[in-house]
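Weekly puzzle thread! Below is a chain. First person to post its structure in token form gets bragging rights.
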Amino acid sequence: MVMVLSGYEIGRALDATFAALADPTRRAILARLAAGEASVAELAAPFAMTQPAISKHLRVLERAGLISSGRDAQRRPRRLEAAPLAQATAWLEHYRKFWEERFQRLDALLTEIQGKATQTRKRKARKPHSKSSGDNK
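Winning reply:
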């Protein structure tokens, strides 16, 4: 199922995604889930924090749509959801292109300025030097 979001909803989804990504613990959880599903206990193992603290991080990630939980007998494994990251990537890509174009124009301008400066130096180097009145001995 493909969800079509309005501009306002996309903005809210991006806000939630970037807020969730702002925390290093949540980024580490996402990195672990990129390797495959994991239980809460498996996700909590590398961190020196309580399981309720990890659960709070997982709720933030779930509210942002970055992860989902399934049901596997007694376990509720979490898995990474790609759509919010894809939306964030598309948003960032727009600005990457914007800045890339700006930097290309700046580079062209600097190249033009350097070329003019080089031509000016060459012209000055070719001009014959006139002798001053004190050098006629």
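Puzzle host: Confirmed. Bonus trivia for everyone else. The domain at 7-81 is CATH 1.10.10.10 (Arc Repressor Mutant, subunit A).
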